[in-house]
Amino acid sequence: MDPLSIILHFISGVWYLFPVLIIILILKTPWFKGWSGELIVNLLARWRLDKNIYHRINNVTLPAENGTTQVDHVIVSVYGVFVVETKNMKGWIFGSADQATWTQKIYRNTNKFQNPLRQNYKHVKTLQSLLGLMDNQIHSVVIFFGDSKFKTSMPENVTHGIGYIRYIKSKSQQVLTEPEVMEIKLKIIDAKLEQSFSTNRRHVQNVRNIIREKEGSSKPACPRCGGVMVMREVKKGPNTGKQFWGCKRFPGCRGVKPITVQTQAES
Prior knowledge:
Elements: H1 3-14, H2 17-27, H3 30-48, E1 55-64, E2 67-77, E3 80-88, E4 91-94, E5 101-106, E6 109-114, H4 116-131, E7 138-145, E8 148-150, E9 158-160, H5 163-170, H6 178-191, H7 197-215, E10 229-233, E11 243-247, E12 256-258, H8 261-266
Parallel strand pairs: 3-7, 4-8, 7-9
Antiparallel strand pairs: 1-2, 2-3, 4-5, 5-6, 10-11, 11-12
């Protein structure tokens, strides 16, 4: 039997394994993990949140100051606008509200990732500016899914699984009227970019550009949103003329940081 015949005979005997292999490879991709996490968010919301009170808008890509910003889920109700960021991760998770990066530990492997509260801060501020909302009318929510476990005490708006439903329902004070809720819903739908491959590609490229800008900059990261900071000068008051680091996104973000002797020498 010639080699080609042997190969064809082997393939004919195991052809049924190829679809299984393809499915396994898809299940392990970051795309599928992200998609499955957002699917769970939607299913829990459908099951536990009254659709007549809580209005869900998914995959919202909005124009932003330096390109676009992509929000996983927005839930609009009389109890406020909830801006939801999902994280499908495994392992032990360590972090606090004030840290720029959090830690994921899987056995002996340790990985750093951006504080999701800072990541969601930009989403919150973009929507707040678009909708003209006060701070008490908009809420940041971070949801972890997957085989992950918090190993440090987390802020109440950082949840795991169905915990995000409990957090949303804990907001029981009405801060918006029904007409305002409908107006906000329409504003978001009108402002969001069309869901398409090109929209997603532009957003991904914008994120990569921001990362390159941060990595190539010796300037500190904003303590509030994690963005790039620029040197500013106090214009009035007893500290007139004194320099400080201010967030590049001001007035959208008002994060500040003092300039130390070391950073002055570096700059």
